[in-house]
Write a structure and sequence with these properties.
This protein has 14 helices and no strands. It starts with 12 loop residues before the first helix and ends with a helix. The protein is mainly α.
Amino acid sequence: MSAGYLYSAAISFFMLIGLGGCASIPGNVSSRDQSAAEVYVNLGQAYLQRNNLREARTALERALSLNPHNSTAHLLYAILQERIEQPQMADQSYRQAVRLAPEEGEIRNAYGAFLCRQQRFSEADQSFEKAYRNPFYEAPERALTNAGVCAQEAGDQTRAEQLFRRALERNPQYAPALFEMAELSLMQKNYLATRAYLQRFTAIAPHTPETLWMCYEAERALNHHAGFTHCAMRLKNDFPTASQTVRLLEIERVE
């Protein structure tokens, strides 16, 4: 189903939130401790990317003890707490990251994604809006797409579509928004639009099991035999163990 902020599972959560832009506020911390904290922040991020949560916690807690004003450390610690299913502690860390860097769009974006996962939809929408309305945020299409996915989760398909379109106005080649519009068009049975969005998606990103399944469904609905046959073959050849392939094989057995 929906990608947007969840699309990070298919790429990388860290690509989505763009940790490189987060701020570190000196406060009373010496330059030596700031530098040392940055080393531990980088270690913590690397451990998180490898899903080595124990080492990530050790590194991030060390970073925070050296420099409690480092917003990146708080953000990574929030991600860690969410992964170990401690949502209250995660919320505290996200809030602290926002307090330290209120103008950092990626932090607002990441916090909005967390709030949406907690089904706190109204708060999530506010956080996303603060991100994409920030004139200094270099990638508002990310927050707009995430806000669209969250609107879908909240049951507001009309608003979701508006947000996805706004994301594509900002960046016509933003793959997650193209994916979302392809999926939304399929849900609306607008199969020609599904085809068009998938063509735009695959011009800049490789097919996934989800996009090949959308292609199969849309081309079949359009009665385009060569199209859905090609997508079915690609699905079976490229992703033989995907759930979409299992579903396709079941359909073919029945037919």
